[in-house]
Amino acid sequence: DAVFKDITEETPVISLNTHTSKRKTPWYSIAASIAAFIFAGTAFLLYQKNVSLSQENQVVVDEIFDLRSDIQKNNDKLDDVMRQFMKLNNPETEKYVLRGNERAKDLKTVAYINAVDKTSMIDVVSLPKLPENQTYQIWAELQDRMVNLGILDASDRKLKSIPYMENALGLSITIEPKVGKPTVSAENEVAEIALKNK
Asked: SS3 sequence, the chain?
């Protein structure tokens, strides 16, 4: 009985809400998504800018390295010029101007000889043009022989060192054939100067 009574007794029915309510749009989710896209885009742009700046920085570093190298080369050249200038201005340095004879009227060279430091330099001021098969050569005249000190070239228009010859009596410039062993003779000579002996 009691079971039947429980079954027949109406239990109140709770009705579930059957109509669907509209869900509100989660604006915070959309805002978070937009913020994430903006952050990703900004991060990508900053990365690109960083790569670009790194490349520009490397170019600047390379240019600075090249400039330092150029400065070092210029400093070395300046040191060379200063050393030459000091040799030229040394009171012991004698200056000798060699001028060409009738065979080479435009020839002019200047020799600087320092007997104390045992250094010799020559400055080619002007050399008349020669045929392709000939060259100008400079000689030191010693007591018993002539010693070849090298070839003079019109294109080499800078002060250059030549071998110092102890007890040289004079300097001569001759025109010699390019090929073969040069031999000094009076007919080849185009300039000559006697040296002071100290």
From this structure: CHHHHHHHCCCCCCCCCCCCCCCCCCHHHHHHHHHHHHHHHHHHHHHHHHHHHHHHHHHHHHHHHHHHHHHHHHHHHHHHHHHHHHHHHCCCEEEEEEECCCCCCCCEEEEEEECCCCEEEEEEEECCCCCCCEEEEEEEECCCCEEEEEEECCCCCCCEEECCCCCCCEEEEEEEECCCCCCCCHHHEEEEEECCCC
Residue 142: both structure tokens together: 């010693």
Q: The whole model's pTM is what?
A: 0.62
Note the pLDDT tens digit of each residue in 17-53.
655 556 666 888 889 999 999 999 999 999 999 999 9
The token pair at 53 is 């700046």
Cβ atoms of 65 and 80 closer than 8 Å = no
Taking CA atoms, 79 is separated from 71, 75, 91, 180, in Å, by 12, 6, 20, 38
Asked if the 93-194 domain carries CATH number 3.30.1490, the reply is: no
Report pLDDT digits (tens) over 89-104.
Answer: 888 899 999 999 988 8
Q: Which amino acid is at 193?
A: I
